[in-house]
Structures are given as C-alpha cells and as structure tokens.
Amino acid sequence: MIEVYNETNSDAYIKDIENILKLGLKHMNIKDSYISVVIVDKDKIHEINKTYRNVDKVTDVISFAFEDNGGITPDGLRILGEIYLCMDKAKEQAIEYGHSNKREICYLVTHGLLHLLGYDHEKEENKKKMRTKEEKILELYDANR
User: How far apart are alpha carbons 132 and 138 in whole angstroms?
Assistant: First the structure.
C-alpha cells in the first residue's frame, strides 16, 4: 500500500509517485508493504533535516526506514517507512540538471525507496549499487534523463 500526502499547494505528480513506487517495489521483489510519502515545502523539510539529522539546511528527500525497528505487522505487512519529498527543491533541481520535473521527482522517490530498503551511498561501492538500481527503475518507468 502506498499513501501520498500533499502538504503543499504545488502540483505534486501524485500518480507518478505512486506508479514509480509500485514499479520499484515490483522490481525489488517486495510484496505486501506499506510506504507513505509526504510532500512538503522547504521550511518543513529544513525543520525535519535539522531535527532528525542535525543538518541545518534544506534538502530534497529524507527517508525514515521503519523496518530497522521490526516494521512487520502481525498479518505480514512490511511497513517500510516514510519518504519526505520537498517539491520546491525537486523542481529547482530539475531545472538545474536540465530534465523534467517528472524525472527528478521519480528519481528522488526511487532514491528514498532504496534508502527504505537499506541501500546507502556512503561508500563508493554502495553508491554504485544504489545508482544502478535507481537507473534501472527509472528506465523501466520511462523516466530517463
């Protein structure tokens, strides 16, 4: 199950967010799972980043993985976690990187999903693995550069 909450007045690309997550979950062979996505503005993501990561700046996406805390319900549903997406930042980056809003939003949500599944980009080797998965999911969804 995927739930998307738009806390902004921005066009949120909700269908694309839902669809890329469904495709990403299928590609990663994840069944019976729950993810929530919350679309926020710069002020909110700045507050979240400062409060939970002790980083005093605006960012594009933040993931909170729940499985680290035993996120499986008695009926077997995997509660993967929450993804917070800053739509303003996503749209700025789309311009900066020279691609569509859809592509940037799909990339960020896919990036967030992989974090929920335990991927990280702290080491170069892990970054390559994560980037390969991201690009494959984006390709399958036709959200390439």
Answer: 10
Using CB atoms within 10 A of its CB, is residue 109 exposed (0-12), middle (13-18) or buried (19+)? Answer: buried
Instruction: Map out the domains of the chain with their CATH numbers.
Output: 2-140 (3.40.390.30)
Burial grade of 31 (CB within 10 A; 0-12, 13-18, 19 or more): exposed
Rounded alpha-carbon distances, angstroms, from residue 113 to 43, 95, 128: 23, 23, 16
Structure-token pair, residue 85: 């997406």
pLDDT in tens, 8-31: 887 778 999 999 999 999 998 888
Alpha carbon 137 to its chain's center: 12
